[in-house]
Sequence to fold (602 residues):
Amino acid sequence: MLSVTILGNNSAVPAFNRHPTSQVVTQDGTNFLVDCGEGTQIQMIKYKIRRGKISHIFISHLHGDHYFGLVGLINTFNLLSHKQELHVFGPAPLQEIIEMQLKVADTAICYPLHFHTIKENAVLVDNEKIKVSCFRTNHRIECYGFLFEEKEGKRKLLIEKIRKLRIPISFYNSLQEGRDYITPKGEVVKNDSVTAPPGRAKKYAFCADTKYDEQLIQHIYGADMIYHETTYLDNMRDKAEARFHTTTRQAAEIARKAMVKKLLIGHFSSKYASLEPFYQETKEGFTNTKLAIEGSTYEVP
Amino acid sequence: MLSVTILGNNSAVPAFNRHPTSQVVTQDGTNFLVDCGEGTQIQMIKYKIRRGKISHIFISHLHGDHYFGLVGLINTFNLLSHKQELHVFGPAPLQEIIEMQLKVADTAICYPLHFHTIKENAVLVDNEKIKVSCFRTNHRIECYGFLFEEKEGKRKLLIEKIRKLRIPISFYNSLQEGRDYITPKGEVVKNDSVTAPPGRAKKYAFCADTKYDEQLIQHIYGADMIYHETTYLDNMRDKAEARFHTTTRQAAEIARKAMVKKLLIGHFSSKYASLEPFYQETKEGFTNTKLAIEGSTYEVP
Fold:
């Protein structure tokens, strides 16, 4: 299962109890943090995100509302005697900024902390469960979106049938990998009679900050869910263009052209008290739209 | 009137809905911000602090829980089209850290922003209303406390008496400055018959992070109120010593020896869920003790 929990859904300035960008992508018990605006660690406490489960942090770009909470989180991990590895991915000079602040505080990090400077279309994580890659978006400064692609899992055991046939537990792994089972008497139990196909591997794209740009489509085409910014309502297209942001109807258009299944919208300007008009406008262009609400979790369908 | 509003009362890690250090010292309509931990700008919104009234920010030291919210606040002022001057005081290399982050975001600050690197016993602000100076505390890294000393104000007009004698408004300033009034007929109205003495000038000291150190006393002696950290309860004296922090009874001892009138305690370790034991222990050594509670305002008596 792949899901996204929103910690911050606002653009630049905190307002109306909305916070700067941060979200947790969860896959099979692993938490990936995407962006880390100021106050993210406080939002994590509020929404009971298990900080210790975070092994990877991806920073899209170096506008403050996307990373000013990172140094505090790294510091907190240290104070809480975090043990496991933490991998931080972001554009240069993120590492320099963080390390300078740790140095002046005379702070030595007690857990394995690895910085990775990201570049266009790089594969950032690739293991048996998931692949995470990045792609450039069209923003005022160097900015990246992130694509999470699940790997196809193992076949699912039909446990009642397996027990009826008294297949020993030591063969379960082999069944999950698709092999048939041979009984002690030499009878063949066909794999698909005791297992079901694995769940479909899903694809989620975080499109970061960007102006309307169809170049994005090639990276997110056919995704099961995307998060696309809608900083402004559609009557602000000129301002959106000038500030390298996107409006509601523009985000819907990208989602439609990219043939995605579900569109999550966020990064709302602090000038708007109500988010309902964002939902209404976007939905007109793309039906399966959801507002990114802080504390809510969205399953990738 | 001199008062202190607490925005964050916790040490290093946010916990139990307590936030890292920040407080607003208000004198006669001017807001001075002292320390600016992560989330300070969000606390300001919550407690309705008028951000536009902040002209000076004092950063005690470069441990993150005292300044990680600064760059966000400076950035927010910019996005809100702040106009007035902002003076930021802190140890080197605070300016470098902030400017680096603004530079990588391609942010040009649109209001007059002035950094001042602080040194031992420097006078930071000195105008007709207030003097602010700094003093070294005994912490793991370079750290400063701040002393706020009101200037004696003008005499207060006894407005009913003044009206009865038909003294023209144009002479009010002269009366406030202590001069007598001469009527058109040449009669002398003695100043103290129509004015009262000014309110007493008050003194408040923020003692920052520090281990127990009687060297502090010379700087805060006779203050009307001090804020002193009590990171730990008194059974943790060894840990406090090792980490350059203070316990409850130690803070009370400093307050007593420095002959201050009121003691405000804060910077509580995130290991403690309840603050009541801090109050009880400190009060035993110094009766006029108050717990620093977020959102509360404490008048300097």
About this structure: Residues 94-104 of chain B form the longest helix (11 residues). Chain B has ten helices and 18 strands.
